[in-house]
Amino acid sequence: MDGTPVTVESVREVGPDTVALDLETPAEFDAAPGQFVLLRAVPGEGAVDDPDDDEVVERHYTLSSPSVGDTFEITVGVDPEGDLSPWLADLEGGETVHIDGPFGTITYDGDEDGDVVAIAGGPGVGPAIAIAEAAHDGGHDAVVIYQDDAPAHEDRLEDLANEGVPVELVAGDDTAALTDAIETHLEEGQVYAFGFDAFVTTVAETIEDAGGDADGAHIENFG
Fold first, then answer.
1. pLDDT (tens digit, 9 = 90+) per residue, 48-61?
2. 178 three-state secondary structure
3. Full-prediction pTM beyond 0.85?
4. Partner of 172 for a Cys bridge, out of 65, 149, 186, 218, CB 3.0 to 4.6 A?
5. How far apart are CA 53 and CA 7, in angstroms?
């Protein structure tokens, strides 16, 4: 199987149909918040020396930890009918998966990027919260705007809020509240936005309508 074999250190539930996996950090692996990896596995078997190509399932996952040390985190939305995510959610730790990367040009680089407004739709919460935490830990201001009917990582969002970081939670169908939150906080930092096409389109249009520069925002479209 292509890629670097890494150990799954732990798996934990972080929201409805959502788990976070802590993965062993390979030697010389260096990633910044906002980047993603390609994960490969053979569901039901784990590590296989020479699997057939049709046995291997691969998916891209964005890092949801603010840094990489001995481990790094990805957040996985679990589709009960999916080929990979239900298997990942059932892991107990100690299994092996393979990764390539990191990939992606949307990154948070600490002092270079400074204050941030991290905007997330659904699964975009992983990179958004990682960027907000990295900024806050580095002494910069951060804002989190998160649209979802079933929020994930609520403990981390609560920790940020308790430390003075504005956290705006918006219902999944409340476009007006989303646009209001973006307009309110738009000038408070570099904008990062992560989510599916309809969501990030709304974010970009709101930035433009508010007199901002959507081209200057870091927007990742999950498709």
1. 455 566 789 999 99
2. helix
3. yes
4. 149
5. 21
C-beta of residue 76 within 8 angstroms of C-beta of residue 88: yes
Banded model confidence at residue 115, pLDDT cuts 50, 70, 90: very high
pLDDT digits (tens, 9 = 90+) for 91-102: 999 999 999 999
CB 71 within 8 A of CB 23: yes
The CA–CA distances, whole Å, from 55 to 52, 58, 80, 187 equal 5, 10, 19, 48
132-162 CB burial, b ≥16 within 10 A, e <16: bbbbbeeebbbbbbbbbeebbbeebbeebee
Residue 46 buriedness (CB in 10 A; 0-12 / 13-18 / 19+): middle
Q: Which residue from 127, 11, 156 is spatially nearest to 71, judged by alpha carbons?
A: 11
**Could you please report the per-residue DSSP string of 33-63?**
TT-EEEEEEBTTTB--SS--GGG-EEEEEEB
| End-to-end Cα, the chain, rounded Å | 26
Name residue, tokens 């270079």.
Answer: 112
Instruction: Collapse the DSSP code of 88 into the 3-class scheme (helix H, G, I; strand E, B; otherwise coil) and give the result.
Output: helix
Cα-flanking dihedrals φ and ψ of residue 41, to 5°?
Answer: -160, 165
